[in-house]
Amino acid sequence: MALHQEDNQSKKPFLWIAISMIPILIILGFVYSSYHNQKNITSYAQPAVRVAVDTSAKNFFRNWDVVTNDTVSVQYQDTDIAEIHMVLEYATEIRAALDDKYNFYYNKPISIVVIPSREIMREFFKWDTHTSAVGVFYGNRIFVLQPSLWIEADSFDELELEFRANGPIAHEYMHLLLDHKLHNNFPRWFTEGVAQYEEFIYQEYEWIEEVGTLDRELYKYYEMKDQFDRLQNQPLAYRQSFKFIEYLMERYGEERYWQLIGELEKRVHFEQAFFNAYDKELYEVWGDWTKYVKAFEIR
């Protein structure tokens, strides 16, 4: 009997080791399965990341006023209510159009915050005095600088026309849509390219600066892939991302694009998803595009 008790005691450490290994083995099995099936496992963490980032916004803007409908909620402070309803109405239209196009279902209103000054925008995002923007998608919200601060208009009707033509709603909503639908399973250049493309389709707005035209040395694919936000010429980087997406649509058609979206939604790694949709490696298509840009003097 004593020997039997001693034997059980000697087995206990091994039992606990075996039990403690179970979560590790599950994770390793998940990683192996994900790799074998070419899935991007980091995308599974995106909802938690989104909630964590959005917490600071909830706290910062918790006492602001709000107007809402079934699909859009707008928080605001010290802004004319007519401007707020203008933002609400246009965001509602844009969301309906893009949700339908991308077959996107999101069961609650999207959150938009209208910021009444550049100083508050800089304070929240911790920007320096040289940094500014009229629209930002961050966490799980769209932030818009009060339209009358950056649009010169002699009347409200003129303000509304200009906001619908050049405002950031379509661009920033595409970031939100892609983040949710595709689980953030894409590189930065891709989401910026698609956001600009849809912005052009729905608003006929095209961001182009003299330093960003394509009649200069272009960034190579690996630079766009690995360093997009750190590239020195940001107007050029954004321009390249937009014109490459436009090229894909014109050269290969929308059917291939929707195949790519479907692959990304299944969490297939981006470059593998691209190959599955276009039957060519992404870097090869990028090379074809750069030749096309030079041959046809695309700007």
Structural class: alpha/beta
- Give the biggest beta sheet: 5 strands, mixed
- Strand percentage lies at 5-15%
In total, how many domains does the architecture comprise? 2
Low-confidence stretches: 1-12, 25-35
Mean pLDDT: 89
The largest beta-sheet arranges its strands as 1-2-3-5-4
Transmembrane segments: 14-35
Organism: Desulfuribacillus stibiiarsenatis
Pfam families: Peptidase_MA_2
InterPro entries: Peptidase_MA-like_dom
Summary, kept brief:
The protein is an alpha/beta fold and 299 residues long. It folds into 2 domains: 43-182, 3-Layer(aba) Sandwich (Glutaredoxin); 185-299. Helix content is 62%, strand content 8%.
Q: Could you describe the 3D structure shown?
A:
The chain is α/β, with parallel strands linked by helices and about 300 residues long. It folds into two domains: about 45-180, Glutaredoxin; about 185-299. It contains 13 helices and five strands. It has helices at about 1-35, 45-60, 80-100, 120-125, 145-150, 155-165, 170-180, 190-205, 220-225, 235-250, 255-265, 270-280, 280-295; strands spanning about 65-70, 70-75, 110-115, 135-140, 140-145. α3 (about 80-100) packs across α7 (about 170-180), α8 (about 190-205) packs across α10 and α11 runs antiparallel to α12. The longest helix is centred in the N-terminal third of the chain and has 35 residues, at about 1-35. The chain is globular. Residues about 1-10 and about 25-35 have low confidence and may be disordered.
